[in-house]
Write a structure and sequence with these properties.
By secondary structure, the chain is an alpha+beta fold. It has three helices and six strands. It folds into two domains: about 30 residues; about 120 residues, Mago nashi protein (2-Layer Sandwich). Helix content is about 30%, strand content about 35%. The longest helix has 26 residues.
């Protein structure tokens, strides 16, 4: 057995492991910056996956300054042809309305829900990422298939928000 080579390997590994936590720690300790542009994400909601009619994708993003965007890329069937229904819409609501919507989501459990434990077919996956609205934000992400039980409150708020602010989408 070649002891010098073994000792060198052990020393190299311990050096790598000693550096990794420091690199991670410096990444997590971000610089405190003045927030001169108040445009932090509050919510990213995505619905994507396969359905009986084909794949679909929707994404809603709400920012602290009231900027809201909704996009979609759905498969559609037109006269026996398959096509894509692709659209993006943006609106502005007041920062107070954005904060109010965020507060409703938090009250409905958006920061505490976990991934749904059920498996289903032909239903798109809903994924919610909610942020705390700061520059160096904390976030919580979870996914669910169907807005039932503990997911009903958040699901209803999201559906109503989209229907209210994007009625023709």
């Amino acid at each position: 057995m070649n002891r010098p080579a073994l000792l060198l390997s052990v020393a190299a590994c311990s050096t790598l492991f000693a550096v990794a936590p420091r690199a991670e720690q410096s990444f997590l300790q971000s610089r405190v910056c003045p927030n001169s542009i108040r445009h932090e994400p509050l919510l990213i909601f995505e619905r994507s996956g396969g359905t009986l009619l084909g794949p679909m994708y929707r994404s809603l993003t709400v920012y602290s300054d009231g900027r809201v965007s909704l996009s979609k890329n759905d498969t559609v069937f037109l006269d026996a042809r398959v096509g894509q229904d692709v659209a993006v819409a943006t609106i502005s609501i007041s920062p107070a309305d954005a904060a109010g919507f965020w507060a409703l989501l938090v009250d409905a459990g958006a920061f505490s829900l976990c991934d749904m434990d059920a498996q289903v077919t032909d239903v798109p996956l809903n994924t919610v990422t909610i942020f705390d609205g700061r520059t160096d934000s904390n976030a919580h992400t979870y996914s669910y298939w169907i807005a039932i039980d503990e997911y009903a409150g958040v699901g209803t708020l999201l559906s109503n928000f989209i229907a209210t602010h994007f009625p023709d989408f």
